[in-house]
Design a protein that fits this description.
Strand content of chain A: under 5%
Mean pLDDT of chain B: 84
Strand order of the largest sheet of chain B: 1-2-4-3
Oligomer: heterodimer
Low-confidence stretches of chain A: 1-12
Shape of chain A: globular
Order of helices and strands of chain B: EHEHHEE
CATH superfamily of chain B: TusA-like domain
Largest interface: A-B, 45 and 34 residues
Structural class of chain A: mainly alpha
Distance between the termini of chain B: 16 Å
Low-confidence stretches of chain B: none
Distance between the termini of chain A: 26 Å
Number of strands of chain A: 2
Strand order of the largest sheet of chain A: 1-2
Number of helices of chain A: 16
Largest sheet of chain B: 4 strands, mixed
Structural class of chain B: alpha+beta
Helix content of chain A: 55-70%
Largest sheet of chain A: 2 strands, antiparallel
Strand content of chain B: 25-35%
Number of domains of chain B: 1
Number of helices of chain B: 3
Radius of gyration of chain A: 22 Å
Shape of chain B: globular
CATH architecture of chain B: 2-Layer Sandwich
Radius of gyration of chain B: 11 Å
Chain lengths: 418, 76
Amino acid sequence: MTTQVNNIGGTPVNPPTILRTHNLAAISVLIGSLALAVYMSGVDPVLAPLWLLGIMAGFTLQRSRFCFASAFRDLFLFGNSKILKGILVGLSISTIGFAINMYGMVPFPNFGVLPSEANILPFGISTIFAGIIFGFGMVISGGCVSGSLYRMAEGYISSWVSIGGVLIGLGLISQSWNWWWTNFISNEEKIWIPSKLDLGYGGAVVVTLSLLFIVFLFLVWWESRVGLSMPDMKRKEEPNDTFNEKLGSIWNTIFVRGWSPIVGGGILGGIVVLMYLSHMPWGVTGELTRWSNNIMTFMNMAPPDALGLSELGGCAGRADESGFFSHTFAVTVGILPGSFIAALFSREFKLRFPQNRKRYIQALGGGVIMGYGAGLAIGCTVGAFFSAVPSLSLSGWLFAASLACGSFIGVQAIKRIS
Amino acid sequence: MELDVRGEICPYPMMKAVEAMKKLEGSDSVVVITDHAPCLETIPPQAGRFGYICEIEETGSPEWKISLIPKGENQE
């Protein structure tokens, strides 16, 4: 394979023809996605905004290389907490947005009514176990569920294998869900912070934001202990004088150079609020559960009717939505064109096959474990964490702590897999 | 020393770069060839810990050459 190595003296790295094909492809996908949005709004008016927000989420994930798996993993592996800080920024924004939205639905939180569609999930042994195995699985496979979805569209073959594993894991949990329900989940409480200790929305928001700030201080301390800092690097001077050059520079900032995870986290926080305002918080497990159940039904291995799911919120509770273009489809599958468009504009799209065969096994095995955990937690890093914490559900915090434990175990394992 | 980690995803490129810098202890530079953009964020912060400085060159789409050069050594 030949590559153009010369980037000195202003020789463009990408010949204009490659550039043009990539940009044309990106624009075609964009137009196709918008056409689908128009079609969807005929099926159900709420589908179009959810689909567009899903695309924006995928675009943001790719641009800021926002990876929940590496957020937790790199803390233990190399003391890097950049993406975790981005997550904290996102959660601060969404916590306030969600609280305002939930206030509109349930003005008096201590009457025992939970706001509809909020990701308020059971708090207990199942949350801990699910978080640990999910955290372990995502580190082994190299990405969580949303991370693998956006990398599928960047051309990472191992991410396709991971998602295959996730579908198998979700199938296994569908088959064993009733055992978990009978023995554990049916006895676990859904702890919604505003309804506790007369906290109300104000108190719950203050508690959540304070916890986020404490985590932030912990991260700063952790990083100072390890001694990491981004070195100053010479960046190529871009001409920035004429109108065209200035436009080009803006274009590069948005579409070519990666975004800081802080920016990415903030935008994702805004996107989940808009999703909730449209209908429901962000989650990707529900749609994948639907696929997994459909595949099993097709193979004559239909799972038993899941006990209790209808009384639970969160992702899996939406798995029984009917019709191909469901709400969960919009916010899950939307990630793919969004990330694909971003990868094409930035010329980061490439079919990448792992050279090391072991990676396929890691992707599949990690995916299965992660899928089982996502099904049990009724959501992945997105549904049971990124959408649960702003729903002011205590389960989001327990799941995050368990994720961290699982990632720690996973890191010890991958250090031994070369 | 050259590390061709094309096809590898996080955390392996960073782990291998760190391993190489640890082993070389500044006796040689490490050139990491990668097609995984997140490496541009994860490898540079490691350089300073081992007395290296870092230079990135875009060599394809998508492909980068991350040069880790021992501090004090003459840069070309």
